[in-house]
Amino acid sequence: MSINVTLSIERIVWDKLQHIMGLAGSLEVSGVFTSSKDTPFHVVDFDLLEQECETTETIIEDTAFVKYMSEKAKKGIDPGRCMRIWVHTHPFSVDDPVPSQQDETTFDKLMEQKPDWSIMLIVGPGGHYGVARCRLVGAPTTYISAPVNISILEQSLPIHKKWDKVHRPLVTKKVLACTSSPMTKTVSSLAISSAMASLIACTYGSSLISSLPSH
């Protein structure tokens, strides 16, 4: 018997995700959706967690989920609403993005508490999205493909700058820098690029740029 699940995403949430994806540029980023209290497959918010990112991988900090869950609990939002749907981007996917083996591993790790259902959604450039992977836990665990539907909610509030301010500090680019030994590599944080600096200066003013690390 086939099972059909529709994930409905509010337009303002989709726009928020697209905006953050644009800010990240070539970096893969991820976060979690919050669903409606009465309708679990209806998405009403997206949260970006603190993470280190590369072009093909995003690693959420161990403490990020603790902080995130604490903030949600203060708002009366339980894990069943905000820890079931993981969404991440594939900035270089030409066609509909599909999960990599690393994506599957990350998904299993994030959902290790084994909720009765959970969803992974991958979003590519231009708003293209892959088929959501919905996992239903039973005996045995069953994987199904969940079609994604985006609901439209008219929203004209100028909130992009608010999204910039809230989410900009959470994404750190992860790069490999060679040490004096050609056989040794170490991970370091990349100084902000001139293009990104210009964007921040335009959004927040030049005072913020002066406080950022330079190359």
TrEMBL record:
Biological source species: marine sediment metagenome
Descriptive protein name: JAB domain-containing protein
